[in-house]
Design brief:
Order of helices and strands: HHHHH
Helix content: over 70%
Low-confidence stretches: none
Radius of gyration: 13 Å
Structural class: mainly alpha
Mean pLDDT: 96
Number of strands: 0
Strand content: under 5%
Largest sheet: none
Shape: globular
Length: 94
């Protein structure tokens, strides 16, 4: 069973309530990266960083992004643009 569509739906419904937080957009960011959706990832990153409260939030997402990147490297399927997203998260994680 594919969970990405269910998670995306749940997060999008929460965002529609008008009370989104960092984790909502970070989740959409990770889903977009998994789906190779550069535009969606960049948009979600922008929204996530706008909601950032604590550096640990960016650190957590950065760790997840690096895990995704490492898995892609092992399969020889890296995303060239994902390193820019990692850099933006790293800057906020400090």
């Amino acid at each position: 069973m594919q969970l990405k569509p269910l998670v995306r739906y749940a997060v999008e419904r929460k965002i529609e309530t008008g009370d989104p937080d960092y984790w909502d957009y970070a989740t959409l960011l990770e889903i977009a990266v998994l789906e190779r959706d550069e535009a969606g990832a960049r948009n979600a990153l922008s929204e996530a960083l706008a909601c950032l409260r604590e550096s640990f939030e960016a650190e957590t997402t950065l760790r997840n992004m690096r895990l995704i990147a490492a898995a892609r490297e092992r399969r020889a399927a890296p995303l060239e643009w994902s390193s820019e997203i990692e850099s933006a998260l790293e800057a906020k994680a400090k």
